[in-house]
Each structure stands twice: as structure tokens, then as C-alpha cells.
Amino acid sequence: MSRRFTAVLAAAAMTVVLAACGDDSDSGNGSASGGTDPIKIGAILGISGRFAFVGEPQKQALELAQQRINADGGIAGRQVEFVVYDDEVDETKSVPLANRLISEDKVVAIIGPSITVPALAIQPIVERAKIPNMTLTSKAIWEGKDGSYVFHTTPREEVEVKSVLSFIKDELKVTKVGVIYDRQPYGTGNLAFIKQFAPDFGLQVVSEEGIENNDTNADAQVQRVRAAGAETVVVWVGDPAASSVVKAINQAGWTVPVLGSSAIAGPRFAELAGPAAEGVYSNSTYDTKAPPANQKTFLDEFTAKFNGPPTQFAAFAYDSAYVLKGAIEAAGGKTDGESIRKGIIDMPAYEGVVATYDFADDNHNGIPNGPLFYIVQVKGGKFEVVYDTRK
Amino acid sequence: MSVDYPQVLATGLTYGVIFALVALGYHLIYVSSGMLNFALGEQLAVAGLVVLSLMSAGVPFVLALIVAVLAAAAFGAGYERFALRPALRMGLVGPLIASVGVAIVIGQARVLIWGPNPRPFAPFTGAPNESVGFLGGRWPIQSFWIIGLAAVSAAALLLFLRYTWYGRAWRATAQSPVGARLSGIDPSVVSMSAVSVASALVTIAGVAIAPIVLAGGFYALDFGVRAFAAAIIGGFTSTTGVLLGGLFIGLLDAWLVAALSAAWSDVVLYAVLALALLVRPRGFLGREGVSRA
């Protein structure tokens, strides 16, 4: 290593240390409570890159939320401004973006990141800076940390798993379940929950087969799940692998009920899988056919503004924005981190798009840990609600 | 665990001929100039999207395919002249690095133009996902198109190399660039046309496989790397070797996934590759005495 390079490295290290000190001593964030400047809320979303299908609708949802909140009189009388950055779901970008939001943009809270790994990466920063953070992931990364500043509106993985299992037990009325799961944490984490909760629903996991999110062929996995005697196939992986799986099932001439996770509950899945998608079930946050009042306004406004219906990911961001609004108002308009954090926990139960949230010290998700989702089924190339796991 | 061999054959051959075509691309470029071109995977992945865009502009499919192949050939020629050749100043590692750079540029441009999401691509004939029973397995109808198209492309190329003056010039350059130059052949033209033809080949491969794997770039690296393994195992310097190498990797991959699991297939595949390199560093059909080594 050249001497010059070492010097640069040392300088870089110094900068990082100084910046970190700056965060701690920085009292700029939220100190202007009661002022007339807009309240700034940061967001770190995976708008481009591999998970653009998650982040892009979330950006749109925040645009809609900003427009709607401000038109309705803002937050505690002040306008709100969302400062949105794209981390491409790359944690090496999420971390500097979080620092920038806190020390340069002086945001009072952060929404996102969209995916778990970047959310874990910025957690130490928000906890240290005492900046409330509404992540958009389904992992309860706040668990086991007293006084954590991390919250989330996205239902926990267990909630979705229980929804799927209750549908298999009550509606499909079969007991032998084959699982094809994403070999990344998204799939392995949920597979563990499926195996943990299956006995509670009288179900038996007879086969578990891993797949990569971008695998183009699933013949072998399908063949093995079939050979194991599965009566239903649970597919816990996003597109395009999910479409590979249903295509392989279709091609093998196997008629078996297939259940996907909410990751496929959008128009994209049926488009990619074509006729093989027909009859496939999935979890969904929305009842698009007869939406209840809390969903209807959001669905209508989003569809009108962006020429298409929102994904569930959009709703998580939208609900996060409104939870922060409720929290700041519950704190009497105070925007320092601790006040907002207390506000989230103390605010009355809020009926959002996805669920009714009631946050508590031991529940930073605000959603009861039980079935929550609608079950939708592809009919004529479109998902339609066929079952409500909440009933 | 019971392995469904007829299905392994169906899946393995369908993917294997694609690997073989891409491996043939690596081979053509390597023997004519000694360069390695790691952009072939990205070029393959972008092909289906280009054809889709042309079709949505009203161009009929066959014409769109021809336009895409010609465009790829033109791109290949320019790419050799302006990216690979100038990098030769750094030695043979220069074009290798330049090709990785170009692969990244193609990949990023693809996302900017077509977005990150893959798109459905209709099979050449029949309904999407339609399959037929053949040799005891289920074969997508598109598989026969893939195998047919690959066979015709490879055969045409081999005949061209064997029986035309140009083909002989090419092989002469592979044998000895100096000797070829003394006979009045310009090696730089041979090298440029090799990259051009290889680009056209992977474009045909990319369009042929798109109905099965969707049009989109998410598999660029997978195909690029597996085809590279095929070329290494078959022997980079042997035309027959890289073609057989492609089929071998396709079948081995399908068998590993069926017999073990997707999780283990990559591990074993690359272990086999490493072992093959130990036993036969030149690949199983690669020869000594070819100047590029």
C-alpha cells in the first residue's frame, strides 16, 4: 500500500469519525418545533435496482401522502416534505444516505429502507441519533432492544404465514404441504415459520425445496415436491422464480392448488406466468373488488394519479407516513425524536390501509400477531379476492 | 432419490444448446485474437428485449429477429474496434477488463431503457408454456425451436469456416497470425468479424430462449458464466469441444438440480470445472500447438 493511499484512507476514516460525532451532538433535527417551516421526513427506498418493483410504488405512495396531508392542513398545522433517496437496495449506499438525511437534511424521522438488509444496516445510526425509523420490511428488527426507535407497518412474516396456513386448513382442507422457498433470507425465514406453525393448523410439511429468485427453471423442484406427495404447493419466492415454478407445475400436467406469498400479488405475476398463473392463490393486502372505506380512498387516488393500482408495498409506505403524522400530532406538534417515538406508542389506534395499528412498547409493528390477509386467486389473468383470513 | 431422467434430458438439452451457442461465441473470439469477451451474457440477455421493442413498434417477429441480429453484428464490430482493440495495449488482460466494463454498461443501459422487470415473450409457435410428451419427458414446444435454430446457426457457421476463403483465412489466423499476415490476411479484420459473428450468435440464442426464461437481464451472469465453463471444459480452442461442452454443462446442471438440489448444483458444477482444469488444463478437446494458449 502506498503512503499516499494510506494518507487518503486515514483522512477518510477521520471524516467518518467526525461525521459520526456530528450526529450525536447535532441538535438541529426537529428543534424547530412549532415553527412554520415544513416538517421534513426522510425516506430511503429501493427505487431502482433489483427490487425496483418494491421501492418505486413506495416513492409514488409518499408523493400521494405528501399531496394529501398538505391539502388536508398538514401535520399539526405545518406542511410536510418527504426527502426521498434511492439506495438501490445496496446497504453501502443506505448508510451514507441515512447519515445525510439526519445531518444535512435534518429530517425528523426516516421511512424505509424497503428491504431488510439495508434496514439492518442503518439501524445503529437511527438508534444512536434517536431518529424514529419506520422500516418497510416484515422483519421485527426492533425486537429485543429496549426503547428502540425502529417501527414498521409492514405485517410481520409470521402474520402472513399464519394467513396462508389458515386458508390451507379451512378452505383447501388438505394436510400435506410442499414448500418451494427462496434460498435468500426472505424464503428461509418464512420457511422456518411455516414449519413452526404448521402443526398448530394440523398441517404437515412433506417437502421443502430451495430456489433462487432468478431461477428460470423449476422442473426438478416441482418433481420432488410432487414425488413427496404434497397436496398443495406453497411458493415463498418472488418473481420471476415464482412464475418458473407455476410454469413447471403446469407443464408437468399436475393439477394442485398453488399458494404464493404476497410478493406475487400483483399484475406482474399473471403477466409473466401467462396461462400457468390461472387458479394460483396468493396473499394480498387489498380487497380490490369491494374495498373497505380505509382502503378505497387510497386505492382510488393512487390509481387515478399513477394510472394503475398500488401494490401492497405502496400501502406500507403510505401507512408509515400517516402513522408519523399521527405521532407528531399526538406529541402536540413536537418533532424531536423522543417525542415522536412516544407519540407513535401513545397515539390512538390508527386505521390504516393495511391494518389498524396500535403500537405499544412491546409491539413496534402495531398489528396483532394473527391472520390478516385476503386470499386472492388468479381468474382470467387477474387476482380476485376469494377469502378473508380475518373472519 | 429418484431422478426423472427424461425430464433432465429435456431441460438439459434446451439450456445446453444455448450454453453451446454462447460458448461458440467465446471460442470464435478467442481463437481469432486471443481475447476473452465477458459481455456475451449481457448481449444474450438484452436480445429478447430489443425484439420485443421492435415488435411493439409494429415490426413483424421474423423481421425483428433479423434486425436485432444485424444490429448485434454491427454493435459487435464497433465494440471490437473501439473497446476491445484499444485495450490490447495492456496485453490480453486489457480486452478482458474492457469487456467487463462493456457488460456493465449494457446491463445498466438495459435497466434504464426497459426497467428492471422481466417481460413475457411469446413462444415462436403454440400457446405460452405449451409442452408435448417426448422421450418420456415434457418438452416445451419452444425447446424444439431452440434446438433447431441452434443447430442451423452452428452448422452454417461451421460450413462457412470450412468451405469459404474467408473461413480459411480465419482458421489461418488462429493457427498463426504472423503466417496469415504474410499471406495477405489482415488479422484485425478477422478479429473484428469474430466479435461481430459472436454477437449475432448470442442474439439468436437470447431470442430463442426468451419464451422459456422471459425477456430480461436477470439471467445474464448465469448464462455467461455457465457458457464460459462449457468453453473451458470443452477446450477453448476446439469448435467441437465448446459445442459438446455446452451440452455437457446443460445436462450436468439439470441432473445436479434433479439429483441433489439447486443449492448444491452450483457447488458441484464448479468443483467439476476445477477438477477438469486440473486433469485437462486445455479442456477435453482443446489441442496443443494452437498459437492461442
Give the SSE map.
The complex is a heterodimer of chains A (391) and B (293).
Chain A: H1 3-25, E1 39-45, H2 52-71, E2 80-86, H3 91-103, E3 109-111, H4 116-129, E4 133-135, E5 150-152, H5 157-172, E6 176-182, H6 185-197, E7 204-211, H7 219-227, E8 232-236, H8 241-251, E9 258-260, H9 267-273, E10 281-284, H10 293-306, H11 312-330, H12 337-346, E11 350-351, E12 356-357, E13 374-379, E14 382-388
Parallel strand pairs in A: 1-2, 1-3, 3-4, 4-5, 6-7, 6-8, 8-9, 9-10
Antiparallel strand pairs in A: 10-13, 11-12, 13-14
Helix pairs in contact in A: 2-11, 3-4, 5-6, 7-8, 8-9, 11-12
Chain B: H1 5-33, H2 40-56, H3 61-87, H4 93-114, E1 131-134, E2 137-140, H5 141-163, H6 165-175, H7 177-182, H8 187-213, H9 220-234, H10 239-259, H11 262-279
Antiparallel strand pairs in B: 1-2
Helix pairs in contact in B: 1-5, 1-8, 1-9, 1-10, 2-3, 2-4, 2-8, 2-9, 3-4, 3-8, 5-6, 5-8, 9-10, 10-11
